[in-house]
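Weekly sync, protein design subgroup
Attendees: M.S., D.O., the rotation student, P.L. (late)

Item 1: inverse folding check
M.S. brought a backbone from last month's batch and wanted to see whether the design step gives back something sensible before we order anything. D.O. pointed out we never logged the input encoding, so this time it goes straight into the notes. Structure tokens as presented (413 positions):
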């Protein structure tokens, strides 16, 4: 159980504080409720660009990292389809340093020509390095395009193509910042060796004077039902063949999501999971295999990916996966197998709560998901899933018309 105190400032900033006096550290997490789904189809990659731009300096801070390092802290950031997170971990007595740094870039980020050009080059180079020049690096571009036609999940977080960032103007970027990076679209969550009242007063000191921005407005087009299987084969610069099998899943708060998440664990969580044990260890059809859900706020994906063993064709490997999925569709899982998966999930949640950073980040995420209270309640939803619910979800999910198949083949020499 993670206890916390919530305060909403007059400018709309939500502040959550969890006291943990077992550590000398404190974690500060600033979540902006903006991700790649909030971009325009012809201007993608902006949320990820801002993950970099937010370290380019602000009105009173030319170098974000230097004062934080001198305060004994470390920091990082990441971008998702749905939100962007920035965080710091530092000694509790230097909490105010992190709040000062974060407030300055929320209020007055330096979006000038020089820092913009520098960070644009960094982002474009990252796109080329991780997506265009890395084997299988463009898999999410293909899966997103295959599975989504209307919803902005149809492009990956890094963007649809590097030209969108290359061609961005200062006005484009400033407008994106003013629209989304404001206190009424953010959550500041703090976890560690602090007193809640003291921490909230410090947040009010540094963030309270920042004016609210425009009310966030989203008009996300719903994705129409998929009615036919999708398939794409690529001859690419890859060392060995690889297969991806994706299925549309429910949104993060839909009751069907929890069964889908557990199904991914049944398939590929640990060496006793079905795909690992049967297809990799016993039949040696794969050299690697994995399964996971994206966990998007809107309906997302369950993805199975693997590399067939030498001499095994992609279609033979895919047929073996489909046979395992058909068994889940038609036969209820043994209660003991499900209970084992559920308890492993529960243990993972409990273990994650030993980290002040995890607690700070989870408070922010659950606050935008369904209110931070849900952080303490959701595990019971997982534990309540029954074998029959798992089978029914598998029957709904693992249908050819709800799937996309992506196959990589090495280029002909």
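Designed sequence read out in the meeting:
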């Amino acid at each position: 159980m993670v206890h916390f105190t919530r305060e909403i400032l007059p400018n709309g900033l939500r502040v959550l504080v969890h006291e943990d006096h077992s550590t000398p550290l404190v974690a500060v997490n600033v979540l902006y409720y903006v991700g790649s789904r909030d971009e325009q189809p012809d201007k993608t990659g902006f949320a990820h660009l801002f993950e970099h731009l937010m370290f380019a300096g602000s009105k009173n801070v030319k170098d974000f990292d230097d004062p934080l390092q001198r305060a004994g802290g470390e920091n990082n950031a990441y971008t998702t389809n749905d939100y962007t997170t920035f965080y710091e971990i530092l000694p509790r007595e230097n909490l105010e340093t992190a709040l000062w740094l974060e407030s300055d870039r929320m209020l007055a980020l330096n979006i000038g020509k020089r820092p913009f050009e520098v960070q644009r080059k960094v982002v474009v180079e990252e796109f080329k390095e991780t997506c265009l020049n890395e084997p299988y690096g463009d898999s999410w571009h293909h899966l997103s395009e295959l599975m989504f036609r209307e919803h902005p999940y149809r492009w990956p977080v890094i963007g649809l193509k590097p030209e969108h960032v290359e061609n961005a103007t200062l006005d484009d970027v400033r407008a994106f910042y003013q629209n989304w990076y404001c206190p009424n679209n953010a959550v500041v969550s703090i976890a560690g060796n602090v007193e809640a009242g003291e921490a909230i007063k410090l947040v009010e000191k540094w963030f309270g004077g920042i004016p609210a921005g425009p009310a966030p407005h989203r008009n996300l087009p719903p994705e129409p039902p998929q009615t036919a299987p999708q398939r794409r084969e690529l001859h690419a610069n890859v060392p060995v063949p690889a297969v991806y099998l994706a299925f549309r899943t429910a949104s993060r708060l839909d009751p069907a999501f929890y069964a889908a998440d557990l199904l991914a664990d049944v398939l590929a969580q640990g060496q006793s999971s079905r795909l690992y044990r049967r297809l990799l260890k016993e039949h040696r059809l794969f050299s690697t295999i994995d399964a996971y859900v994206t966990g998007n706020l809107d309906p997302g994906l369950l993805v199975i990916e693997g590399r067939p063993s030498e001499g095994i064709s992609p279609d033979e490997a895919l047929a073996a996966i489909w046979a395992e999925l058909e068994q889940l569709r038609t036969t209820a899982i043994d209660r003991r197998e499900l209970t084992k998966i559920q308890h492993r999930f529960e243990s993972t949640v409990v273990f994650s709560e030993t980290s002040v950073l995890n607690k700070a980040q989870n408070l922010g995420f659950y606050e935008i998901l369904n209110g931070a209270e849900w952080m303490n309640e959701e595990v019971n939803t997982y534990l309540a899933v029954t074998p029959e619910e798992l089978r029914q979800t598998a029957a709904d999910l693992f249908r050819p018309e709800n799937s996309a198949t992506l196959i990589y083949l090495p280029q002909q020499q």
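Discussion: The longest helix spans residues 113-132. The CA atoms of residues 332 and 391 lie 5 Å apart.
Action: P.L. to compare against the previous round before Friday.
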